Amino acid sequence: MTAVTQPVQAGRSARGERRRGRAGRGDSRLALWLIAPTVVALALVIGYPVVRALWQSTFSDSITGNSRFIGIGNYRQALTGPDSSDFWAAFRFTSLFAVVTLFLEVAIGMAMALIMNRAFRGRALLRTSVLVPWAIPTAVTAVLWRWMLQPEGVVNYLISHKVLWTGSEWPARWAIVVADTWKTAPFIGLLLLAGLQIIPDELYESARVDGASAWKRFVTITLPLVRPALLVAVLFRLLDALRLYDLPAILTHGANGTTSLSILVVQASIQQTKYSLGSALSTLTFLYIFIVAFFFVKVLGTNVVRTQQRAVS
Amino acid sequence: MRNSRLIVAASFAVLAVTASGCSGSTPGGNSTSGNGRGPITFATGKDTTGKLQGLLDQWNKAHPSEKVTLVELSENADDQRNAMVQNFQAKSSRFDVVNSDVVWTAEFAARHWIQSLDGSIDTSGLLPATVATATYNGKLYAAPFTSDGGLLYYRKDLVARAPRTWAALKIDCAIAKQHKMGCYAGQFAQYEGLTVNVSEAIDSAGGSILKNSGKKVTVDSPQAKVGLDFLVNGFKQGYIPSEAITYQEEDARRAFQQGHLLFMRNWPYVYNLAQAQGKDSVVQNKFAVAPLPGPNGPGSSTLGGHNLALSSYSKHPKSAIDWMKFMESANIQRKLLTQLSNAPVVASLYDDPKLQQQVPYLATLKQSILSAKTRPVTPVYNEVTLAIEKNSYAALQGKKSVDQALKDMAADIKRAAADN
Questions:
Q1: What angle do CA B188, B81, A165 make, to 5 degrees?
Q2: Could you report the per-residue pLDDT of B96-114, keeping only the tens digit for each?
């Protein structure tokens, strides 16, 4: 974002001195030309797929190629048809997963950030090593955990209890939550660490002089000041969690109530070759994620752009 | 400054994750010539043996102007199908011949993605069941290429004779108990392997899932109940160990090789792996194979394997058909068995004494394949198999009664068939 706005401002000051009178119109035209490539690129890579999916979702699926316009038929089928229980189950699981992992990851990530923010020997090493789970591709994470969660695997050995992790509903869900938390908590920690580092030490010092306890300092200084970074981290994470695909796809194949919305989309559009129903499902998923993001930006005032600018400057 | 570096690192991480969608494409250049002859490509799942190219070289040497290029797809079946579907949808001539799993052939034919081979391919010497998988609406749409059938692996050091019936198998389970091992396992995780195991149980009991080219749903029958009951009771009564609900082929193989199972249903590929010397397996020379048991005598296996299908968008169909005939010749089929461990589709090879000596499980495999039933031949196979998996899995877990599971299964399959 900053990369785009700065040249515009520079252009304004240089031209503005030469011909002050018509500056307003010329500037806006220049700005238009400068952002035009971005707008075109966005329209192509974001606008077109969204519109195309919407259009596609209004047709029927047919093996023989005779698909016809059926309006909201696919949406009705997804939301209230005989298979609608699949959609709602996926909706519930995806939402539950998002809320639970978010809670765990923010709590653990915050703890990691607080530790990493302290000055001690080996801090750089810790910061690097904490990122290792995040650096591992999710697909590999899934295989790794699948291996560890086998009936004869190391996890069952450690808890000396034979849990069939991928054999029934709640263990399978927990397996996915644990694997995701293991992978993503460090990422949240990193984002929060960036937020923590802009809090001046003086605030803590004076609070300490006033006799505030560690908990009080955390609640009254750290939390409010880290809030912008926290909201951004939560937003990123939430959007990510809502389009969950790879972990359950590999760890459980969507069995045992771990079919996420994205898995449902792939099942319909790729495995069953029902592109229109798949488009309808992906549009519904898109709407759901969009509403959540909208809520965050408008109601909670998450400002992704401003926070980044502050961190960069 | 430090903050900015962290932010940059974080955003790169985000970018790396979000940008991992696109992938490149590989060649397959076609020089069009009007007579339907020229170089062709063969799209198939990854050849883990590395021996397939050798067979193709044999053809390429004799046909320098009609060379066939191997296009190796993923090892995973779903990914293979996706790659094929994408090419067909784009009407691309990049794949001339695809190695279609037996269960995809009907759908590809119904969508007119592959050409009818009626009259071009002689199927008289082939195993009839393999020809059935390549036939849709009474017409041959693909050339049977490889076959596969389930076998009962058993510990011959612990049981004298393989059980021929389910009742005999249950009696032998006392031996498993003595040795503190699981008795019987197949593939019972919720995926395609479960459909294979469930249809085996149902077919063995004389039931069926679909009839009349997928037009009549027959799964809510008393016979089907007997079949599914065998698996459900296995978990209830313990002759199938509880962890088998998570098993795919490899998990079952590992358990058997480590000595945790007395009986196992699996494919022939396990034979050589379990026989290999080393720490990986404690069962070398201690196991043998037999046909799958059924309720009152030998059961029937589910037929696996692949068919060669000719893309409707191929520019050199004549060369492709000649090459398919070459791949079905006894000479190549023999090498498929000895070098790639693929079960041949040419019936006479199973009785070849030399081959029987070389491949110890060949005679049993023949019995398995001769009694094998195809999985439902239907263009909506993916929905049908999902219905089978979902409902039978719920029954195995005890969440649904067997009657309810079969009733729901029938309803789901009927709806899938009616959709199209």
A1: 30
A2: 999 999 999 999 999 999 9
